[in-house]
Amino acid sequence: MIARDYNTQRKKMKLPEYGRSIHKMVDHIMKIKNREERILAVKAVIDVMGMMYPYLRDINEFKHKLWDHIAIMSDFKLDIDYPYDPPKPETFIEKPRLIPYDQTDIKYRHYGKIMEKYIAATGRMDDDNPVKATNTELLANQMKKAYLAWNKDAVEDSKILKDLVYLSHGKLKPDLDMHLLETSDIFKLQPKKGKPTPTSNQSNPPRKHK
Asked: Would you list the domain boundaries of the chain?
């Protein structure tokens, strides 16, 4: 019975983009005892690898990369004189550097930091500026949308307006009787999951020719 050769049973490839044949060539080169023969064999494999990317093979930086890939495929154990400094194994096991995150405190995460910035900018406007009143109402409605996106339960307008006063440090004083969007209307505006957004063709179906 012929034994089947499954990919799952084969040695894992270091650089799958080159295919198993190139990896087998590198494995064979590592068994060559003569140092001069090894370097000649590597140069031949480099040429084959370059043919896979003919538009890049004459670029010096690309040649450097090919030699680096030879080192990687040999698990850094190939004893030859590299024309470039080969990469070090430690480079590939180095832990990623931590990305510094903004640790700015957000008072209400469901509103978000951007909303707080808009509120602060509106609060700095002069009270006699008509834009301030308009922005205050727009911000309150946006806050209600953000709240309902975080919590699907209904929310009282008075709660949103009190939060607006708090976040603005009292610089925005909306009328507590201010009319905000109805909760049902906000849910209607939110696109439902799995349903495509209507296009112009959908909203205006083509007329039938008589």
From this structure: 14-93, 113-192
Q: How many degrees, rounded to 5, is the angle at CA 78 between CA 74 and CA 83? A: 105
User: What is residue 145's DSSP assignment?
Assistant: H
Residues composing the chain: 210
What phi and psi values does residue 21 have, to the nearest 5 degrees? -65, -45
What pTM was estimated for this model as a whole?
0.44
Q: What is the pLDDT along the chain (210 residues), one digit of tens a residue?
A: 555 655 666 778 889 999 999 999 999 999 999 999 999 999 999 999 988 888 776 677 888 899 999 999 999 999 999 998 888 888 777 677 777 766 667 778 888 888 999 999 999 999 889 899 889 999 999 998 888 888 877 788 888 899 999 999 999 988 767 878 887 777 776 655 555 544 444 445 445 444
Q: What's 132's DSSP letter?
A: H
Contact predicate 164/136, CB 8 Å? yes
